[in-house]
Specification:
This protein is α+β, with helices and mostly antiparallel strands and about 450 residues long. It contains 10 helices and 16 strands. The two termini are about 30 Å apart. It binds coenzyme A (COA). Coenzyme A (COA) binds near residues 114 and 219.
């Protein structure tokens, strides 16, 4: 069954509910081995990665067993002091995410040139409020939000961002830069500008004492540490159908599709309410404990969590635009916070329709449940409530990756499996690939296992 269109970006991909978990796991394993040919997006021969074969990343089919940790010790004397030279007519710049005009310039670049589906029917459209939020987490520095400008016009034509943070890899906590929003103007593609942006941000990080990075891409590069499918859950199936985002599967009717995705109008979990600033410490504790279940997970500081749940601005809103929704479950007897769930918003422009036509997508963000005994039941209830809340907030579709404990609810809650992979990468760090686990592994109290990091 095919609900959503095929795409370069797995978050926009076709939903084919019947791709079973075994097939998905096998495909993930092939990717790590450099074998998959997933819709032409599989890895090429190792030698053809002209840039990536020169970088401190694990190469395909490398026997990295038992050799975890940094790949290269960085010698600062060998790190260039000057910026890498650019093509003639272009110059380096930065984007200050607190400057409205500069955020506007970034919005302009991304809204016209960022990730599209394979047929160029949809393009991710991060709002200016979202971009400001995504680029100003604690520790941010303007020098890591790197732009390239055309010298004559000063037009922004390329961008890459970095945010410092800590992640847990098994028992180690390491400082990394989180790389995002790599984008090059369509007219400047295939000119090897991406390697330059990557080398320049690497240089700036090395100078500041950050030697590792985490990043995600639909592209298969050497070598994913984890590969996760996107799953999609229609909230307004008719809207998705009318915009060409969803197809009508064979052997069914529109009315049956609408009925299939129907949700109750009120949430079901007793004690579920909007998260407030006063819940922050309890949520941090809950999340920290919960995330220990995974091989790789974020190590949030309280300030980072406050930022990512957008509590400074009061429930995720700025200028009337909300980017994050966060809810807690408060035990009505003990007043303890027992569960937490959040999601964030990204729109996709419908390119084949009028300019203003958009698909509003909620992305499952972090969640945690205290009562791991009835984890499956607990999470199914919690995420179903998140679907109800997202529908009320007028989202059209709800996306989730196949990571964390999501296998415990995806199928049951009518999420459809997309046909693309989102690959996770670590730069200058070798670790055994994370196995994306199925339902039984999620229920295994003996975890850790699986991927616990969500990137915007
Ligand atoms: C991704 C994008 C920046 C690549 O730019 P490009 O002009 O096609 O590629 P360039 O000629 O500059 O560089 C090619 C190199 O970059 C690598 N590359 C391509 N996409 C990459 C990515 N997402 N992350 C890291 N490296 C990437 C290629 O593998 C190649 O290196 P190789 O020779 O080792 O294989 C550009 O296609 C783009 O802006 N796409 C739309 C937005 C997007 O998809 N961004 C990535 C989000 S993860």
């Amino acid at each position: 069954m095919s609900d959503l269109p095929s795409s370069n970006d797995p978050s926009l991909t076709k939903s084919s509910l019947n791709l079973d978990n075994a097939t998905v796991s096998e495909e993930s394993a092939k990717l790590r081995m450099g074998e998959s040919r997933d819709k032409g997006r599989g890895p090429r021969d190792a030698g053809t990665y002209k840039f990536w074969k020169t970088q401190p990343v694990p190469q395909f089919n490398e026997d990295g067993k038992g050799r975890g940790g940094p790949i290269k010790k960085v010698n600062l004397d060998e790190v260039p002091k000057e910026r890498y030279p650019l093509l003639d007519g272009f110059e380096w710049g930065t984007i200050d995410p607190e400057d409205k005009k500069e955020v506007g310039e970034l919005y302009e670049l991304l809204s016209n040139h960022y990730v599209e589906d394979d047929d160029s029917n949809f393009r991710l459209n991060y709002s200016p409020v979202f971009l400001k939020w995504a680029l100003t987490a604690p520790g941010w520095q303007k020098q890591w939000h790197i732009g390239v400008r055309a010298s004559a016009s000063q037009k922004l034509v390329a961008f890459i961002s970095g945010l410092p943070t800590n992640i847990n890899i098994h028992t180690q906590t390491i400082k990394v830069i989180e790389i995002n929003f790599l984008c090059i103007h369509k007219r400047l593609r295939s000119k090897r500008l991406a390697p330059l942006l990557i080398k320049e941000i690497t240089r700036r990080c090395y100078i500041q004492g950050i030697y590792q990075a985490i990043y995600t891409a639909a592209a298969v590069l050497p070598t994913p540490v984890a590969s996760c499918r996107y799953y999609h859950r229609a909230l307004d199936w008719l809207k998705l159908y009318d915009s060409g985002f969803s197809h009508l599967p064979a052997n069914t009717t529109k009315a049956r599709q609408v009925a299939k995705y129907h949700l109750p109008s009120t949430t079901q979990t007793p004690g579920l309410r909007l998260m407030q600033a006063g819940d922050l410490e309890a949520v941090r504790e809950l999340l920290e404990q919960y995330l220990q279940r995974f091989d790789i997970s974020p190590a949030f500081s309280i300030d980072e969590l406050r930022h990512w749940l957008f509590l400074e601005a009061g429930q995720g809103k700025e200028g009337g635009k909300q980017v994050v929704w966060a809810y807690v479950v408060e035990d009505l007897e003990t007043q303890k916070i027992t569960d937490f769930v959040s999601f964030y918003s990204i729109e996709s422009a419908v390119l084949s329709h009028s300019q203003s036509d958009v698909i509003r997508t909620a992305y499952l963000y972090y969640y945690a449940a205290h009562r791991t005994q009835n984890l499956q039941q607990r999470l199914q209830g919690l995420i179903n409530d998140a679907l109800i809340l997202a529908k009320k907030a007028r989202f059209d579709v709800f996306n989730a990756l196949r990571l964390q404990d999501n296998d415990l609810f995806l199928e049951k809650l009518h999420f459809g499996c997309g046909d693309g992979q989102l690959n996770y990468y670590l730069f200058n760090y070798r670790v055994e690939p994370v196995v994306i686990e199925d339902e039984s592994a999620c229920l295994d109290g003996q975890r850790p296992g699986g991927m616990g990091v969500i990137m915007l």
